[in-house]
Design brief:
single chain, mainly alpha
Length: 302
């Protein structure tokens, strides 16, 4: 059974079997072996009643030559086209609202406070929606698209402020950087240069937790002590941590690609494509913001 927490399940986490994507390919020896590492396996008998994703209890797994089971040729199963379509829809909503907030929320001296307040409010709402979706068992397209809309408002305001008041062209540079990281990680993953296994997953999770804790402490020091806090987001340290943030985002992209690949191979239901779109959007927003922050620091140091 998969974890009830989609924060983990969107990266292939299986409560009974660890990280499903890290299990070795099922070996020949019977359906019991084939279903051991597959959260979407087609069980038989009593297992069928316990698996909400099992739609055909008589589906045969491809066990020849130790290959992973292929998704049954039936309707209702996730495909790469489903992932691309839903990710495109989610990013499309985000980009549209970002463009509208850029155009409609002025950042001149008289209005920047109001616009920035709206942006921060949208960011908080988006964060709440992201947490709600993360802990829901099933993907909610409306919730995911609403999150993308509010996140887009925040990104539009912040990008406009950085682009016009700190570094001209910063937003486009951040977009290009994000696209380059996405393409680079995808090529490296498909070429086998990045091996996503249990050790990789553990390292990324530990590094991300440490990074977030450090940034939280820095923010608290900045809020209550004033200035730049501990200096993790300014100067030379800011540049270093900006690069680390981008690298962590690239690692999360690799985890996202692995989860999508496993979901398709194991016959995940079509609605799981929304989880994939949600995860990819979160990761791309992370990378974009780290690029924007890094560009701001580099220009402020000039």
């Amino acid at each position: 059974m998969r974890s009830r927490n989609p924060v983990f399940s969107r990266r292939g986490f299986s409560r009974d079997n660890g990280y499903a994507g890290f299990n070795t390919a099922p070996q020949a020896g019977g359906p019991a072996v084939a279903t051991q590492g597959n959260p979407y396996a087609q069980p038989t008998g009593d297992q069928y009643a316990q698996n909400p994703y099992a739609q055909n209890p008589y589906a045969q797994q491809d066990l020849q030559h130790g290959a992973p089971p292929q998704a049954p040729a039936t309707t209702g199963r996730m495909t790469i086209d489903d992932v691309v379509l839903r990710t495109g829809s989610t990013l499309g909503v985000l980009i549209l609202t970002a463009a509208l907030s850029w155009a409609l929320l002025p950042i001149d001296d008289a209005n920047i406070g109001r616009s920035y307040g709206i942006g921060i409010g949208a960011a908080l709402i988006g964060m709440v929606l992201a947490f709600v979706q993360s802990f829901k068992r099933k993907a909610s397209p409306a919730l995911i698209l609403t999150y993308a809309a509010f996140e887009g408002v925040f990104l539009g305001v912040v990008s406009n402020i950085v682009d016009n008041r700190i570094a001209d062209g910063a937003a486009m540079q951040a977009v290009i950087g994000t696209m380059a990281v996405f393409a680079g990680v995808l090529i490296a993953y498909k070429a086998g240069w990045i091996r996503v296994n249990r050790r990789f997953y553990g390292f990324v999770m530990a590094a991300a937790l440490g990074f977030i804790l450090l940034m939280t402490v820095n923010l608290l020091f900045a809020v209550f002590g004033g200035g730049d806090g501990l200096g993790f987001r300014s100067g030379a340290l800011g540049v270093i941590f900006g690069v680390i943030g981008i690298i962590l985002g690239a690692c999360f992209l690799a985890l996202d690609f692995k989860q999508v690949e496993d979901g398709i191979a194991y016959g995940a239901p079509r609605e799981e494509a929304w989880f994939a779109a949600f995860g990819l959007t979160l990761t791309l927003v992370w990378i974009y913001l780290e690029f924007l922050r890094l560009i701001s620091i580099l220009n402020s140091n000039d």
